[in-house]
């Protein structure tokens, strides 16, 4: 385990599967505070880095135990899809059907509402009227109800460092960042079979990173940033 002290609910572990090392954060919504951040309320500009978010939350007495990037974003550090903070929609739902990994349909939304979390396909989410507290749209979906994305195959040749989030059978949320390049198929299988997550969403590729109180692997700025704090 890395980055967590005794008595703290979030677990940050390194797990090896099929020869690839992954950093995995397991979040218990009953004890951990999981939140999404984009704009610094003081400056109105994107935080950009884990350290800026950590410093801001520290001023209000929160200790950030884990942070990672949220979904894919556009130039200017703007979320490419839905971004909800504190129940406020700061960026709208994106229904694009073309344009990179985001439009490798189906894509989806990772959302939190109270002690509930979910990964939901975009059009299902649109019809459901969930009104979450926090939400981020990205794509493609890695796993949906235990089924891998139909475009993934074992022999896929696109290998990148990847990050994602899953809602798992034990009710916990798990974020994962690969320590080496993997294809979509292997990453999705890791969520489903190793982490036990029947629903999982791809977050981003080569620039994906994470931070704990002792570690910060970030080397590029992000739009949305997820934090787990106590």
Automatic annotation (TrEMBL):
Keyword Hydrolase listed: yes
Cross-referenced Pfam families: NAGPA (PF09992)
Residues annotated as domain Phosphodiester glycosidase: 64-209
GO MF annotation terms: hydrolase activity, acting on glycosyl bonds
Organism superkingdom: Bacteria
Keyword Hydrolase applies: yes
Keyword field: Glycosidase, Hydrolase
Name of the protein in question: Phosphodiester glycosidase family protein
């Amino acid at each position: 385990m890395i980055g967590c002290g005794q008595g703290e609910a979030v677990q940050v572990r390194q797990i090896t599967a099929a020869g690839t090392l992954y950093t995995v954060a397991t979040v218990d919504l009953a004890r951990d505070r999981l939140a999404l951040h984009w704009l610094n309320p003081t400056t109105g500009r994107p935080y950009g880095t884990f350290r800026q978010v950590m410093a801001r939350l520290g001023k209000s007495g929160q200790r950030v135990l884990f942070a990672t990037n949220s979904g894919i974003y556009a130039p200017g550090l703007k979320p490419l899809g839905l971004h909800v903070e504190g129940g406020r929609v700061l960026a709208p739902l994106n229904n694009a059907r073309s344009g990179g990994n985001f439009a490798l349909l189906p894509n989806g939304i990772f959302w939190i509402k109270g002690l509930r979390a979910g990964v939901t396909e975009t059009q299902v989410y649109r019809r459901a009227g969930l009104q979450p507290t926090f939400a981020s749209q990205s794509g493609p979906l890695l796993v949906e109800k235990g089924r891998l994305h139909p475009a993934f195959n074992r022999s896929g040749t696109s290998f990148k460092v990847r990050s994602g989030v899953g809602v798992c059978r034990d009710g916990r949320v798990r974020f994962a960042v690969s320590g080496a390049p993997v294809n979509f198929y292997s990453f999705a299988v890791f969520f489903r079979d190793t982490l036990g997550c029947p629903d999982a969403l791809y977050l981003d590729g080569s620039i994906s990173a994470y931070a704990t109180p002792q570690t910060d692997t970030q080397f590029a700025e992000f739009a949305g940033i997820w934090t787990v704090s106590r």
